[in-house]
């Protein structure tokens, strides 16, 4: 789980590259996801890619849907639902 944040950022950058999106540069916890360079389809691809790589989709595991606003929120969701 120590590399979870790095894996998520790498997946964001790779997804943006494949989609031809211009990313914001360095990602920090306060980076607003809507300003990251990915559109809604890009985020859907990102979540599918992370599910394939990590083996789980935290958004499916939630009782109530939560939509992360920042990178820090996004990483926190993945951390919270990380398989034990």
UniProtKB/TrEMBL annotation:
Xref: Pfam families: PP-binding
Protein name as catalogued: Acyl carrier protein
Residue ranges occupied by any Carrier domain in the UniProt entry: 28-56
Species of the source: Undibacterium jejuense
Domain of life: Bacteria
